[in-house]
Design a protein that fits this description.
Blueprint: E1 2-7, H1 11-21, E2 27-31, E3 43-44, E4 53-54, H2 55-67, E5 71-75, E6 79-85, E7 87-92, E8 97-105, E9 109-111, E10 127-128, H3 131-134, E11 142-146, H4 150-160, E12 165-169, H5 179-187, E13 191-194, E14 197-204, E15 209-216, E16 222-226, E17 229-232, E18 236-238, E19 267-269, H6 281-300
Parallel strand pairs: 1-2, 1-8, 2-5, 8-19, 10-17, 11-12, 11-17, 12-13
Antiparallel strand pairs: 3-4, 6-7, 7-8, 9-18, 14-15, 15-16
Helix pairs in contact: 1-2, 1-6, 4-5
The structure holds flavin-adenine dinucleotide (FAD).
The site of flavin-adenine dinucleotide has 39 residues, from helix 1, strand 2, strand 9 and helix 6.
Cofactor: FAD
Binding site for NAD(+): 142-156
Family: Belongs to the class-II pyridine nucleotide-disulfide oxidoreductase family.
Length: 304
């Protein structure tokens, strides 16, 4: 039986495991794929104190740091059940199960994709999902933002300060973003907003994005826009489908308190899977530390 079982091996889970092991707690990490979203990232320039790194390199560093401690890493395993019994049981898709006194949920999230031709081919070559991360790569260039919700319009405002021009493409007949954000976007000289636009294809020259095609859903006309970058902002989906007893927001994010604890005492959560305001590596790691210290506090208050 573990004292702390971390589900997920991204930045949040790695940080949580190190903090738990440093308290002398019997710690395990069960993860589908160690490294999480970072494995899919090319350049990382906002992991403070490391001026520039690459996803696979950061994953290797994370793993090396975790392995410096007595942490049991179980890779290639997906959790599909959380059962509260005498402590907790995590059920795995393989049919096996793991017991622990506390559970730290760190299963992260995934960006919702457009699922159109060219998207996968040009991912990281102009197709981007994170304006905070990749915005500066498009300095002085033309970009599109797909999605007119809050995150799309926030991204457009953010990018408009860096890039030459932003075209926002919204599928619906109107934007869903807050009015104040829409007003701000409209007041900026270099943002165009196109509604009723169904993005149909990412166009590139083999090495990078050169444009996109979309159809006007009202007229049926096809259009081509030349640009260097496409920021997809149609939602971040937390990996919580397998949880049925943990309290979630209406977007499916795990609700945590300021110690990272969920509605179930002894079950903590950290990183992108939670209702944290922003989703970044440095934030995920910080919340991993918080949740782990929260679990430690919880354990020392249990009857011997
Ligand atoms: P994740 O990294 O999502 O890790 C989740 C972990 O849980 C993985 O190990 C996964 O395999 C595992 N898992 C999921 N479900 C299960 C399950 N049921 N059972 C077992 N294991 C499971 N942030 C920055 O700060 N800077 C950047 O430059 C940057 N660039 C990015 C570029 C891209 C393309 C993407 C996608 C994200 C980027 N981000 C960046 C965001 C950053 O990667 C995330 O905020 C961060 O990885 C979140 O960490 P996490 O540990 O919470 O979750």
């Amino acid at each position: 039986e573990f004292d702390v079982l971390v589900v997920g091996g991204g930045p949040a889970g790695s940080s949580a495991a190190i903090y738990a092991a440093r308290k002398g707690l019997k710690t395990g990490i069960v993860a589908d794929k160690f490294g999480g979203q970072v494995s899919e990232t090319i350049g990382i320039e906002n992991f403070i104190s490391v001026k520039a790194t690459e996803g696979p390199k950061l994953v290797a560093n994370l793993e090396e740091h975790v392995k410096d401690y007595d942490v049991d890493i179980m890779q290639g395993q997906r959790a599909n059940k959380l059962i509260t019994d005498n402590g907790f049981t995590i059920g795995l898709e393989s049919g096996a199960s793991l017991k622990s006194k506390t559970v730290l949920l760190a299963t992260g999230a995934r960006w919702r994709e457009m699922n159109i031709p060219g998207e996968q081919e040009y991912r990281g070559k102009g197709v981007a999902y994170c304006p905070h991360c990749d915005g500066p790569l498009f300095k002085g260039k033309r970009v599109a933002v797909i999605g007119g919700g809050n995150s799309g319009i926030e991204a457009a405002i953010d990018l408009a300060g860096i890039v030459e021009h932003v075209t926002v493409l919204e599928f619906d007949s109107k934007l869903r973003a807050d009015q104040v954000l829409q007003n701000k976007a409209n007041s900026m000289g270099n943002i165009d907003i196109i509604t009723q636009a169904q993005t149909t294809e990412v166009i590139g020259n083999g090495t990078k994005v050169t444009g996109l095609n979309y159809t006007n859903r009202e007229t049926g006309e096809n259009h081509h826009v030349e640009l260097a970058g496409i920021f997809v902002q149609i939602g971040l989906v937390p990996n919580t489908e397998w949880l049925d007893s943990v309290e979630l927001t209406n977007r499916g994010e795990v609700i945590v308190d300021n110690q990272g604890q969920t509605n179930i005492p002894g079950v903590f959560a950290c990183g992108d899977v939670t209702n944290s305001a922003y989703k970044q590596i440095i934030i995920a790691m910080g919340s991993g530390a918080t949740a782990s210290l929260g679990a430690f506090d919880h354990l020392i208050r249990q009857a011997a």
